[in-house]
UniProtKB/TrEMBL annotation:
Biological process per Gene Ontology, one example term: methylation
Phylogenetic lineage: Bacteria, Bacillati, Actinomycetota, Actinomycetes, Micromonosporales
Pfam families on file: Methyltransf_12 (PF08242)
Keywords recorded for this protein, A-Z: Methyltransferase, Transferase
SUPFAM superfamilies recorded: S-adenosyl-L-methionine-dependent methyltransferases
InterPro entries, alphabetized: Methyltransf_12, SAM-dependent_MTases_sf
Name of protein: SAM-dependent methyltransferase
Amino acid sequence: MDRQTLSALAHADHPIAAPLSEASVAEVLDRALRPDAHVLDLGCGEGAWLLRALEVRPDVTAVGVDLSDKGFGRTRAAAARSGAADRLDLVVADATQYRGDRPADVVLSVGSAHAFGGLLPTLAAARTHLADTGTVVIGDGFWEREPGPDLRAEIEAPDQPYADLAGTIAAVSADGWTPVYGHVSTIEEWDDYEFSWTGSLARWALDHPDDPDAKHALEASAEHRDMWLGYRGVLGFVTLVLRRTG
């Protein structure tokens, strides 16, 4: 099973591909969006953040960019049902190479920092798309508690280490950004997200025992569950709403 299909199945019950509740997503978007905003999501997945932005603000336009179009059909259909289809464009492309035809008032990149090489490279990419007075919404991991060496090696890419929350915000601030809002995912949000991720994938495998990918999906679910239980309460996730500092 390819990674995009596995991810689409795992997020069937939690389309926001990050440990945030629907209420938290709504609050973050409310802090970030202005009237008539043009929103760009770099690494949009199926476009769940954009769909919620369109539902919250009837004057918003949105573009989502992702390597895979898995879930795009569902998102376009949902936008059509809500009357927002003409305000949404979903593009299959490498978000690190994408160049839009207009500046974005809001650039989203939640849970996609690995694709850009880490938190600060993601902000550098967002800056190239951002209008002068624009806002960035970025979500990434941090260490709630100091991890053991084995867990650190399992979770972190060698060139993308995590800091603690204070270190994360200090790095963002030193890079020329001012947080104007932030949300730290709660343990309840983490549990809901991870149980949904592993459970949706496992349920699909159990419902399709004759599918050649069923065994792999069930193994991937169990492997991810074991990893999550190892980092539960140690790995955190913060979503920051940022403006450029001067």
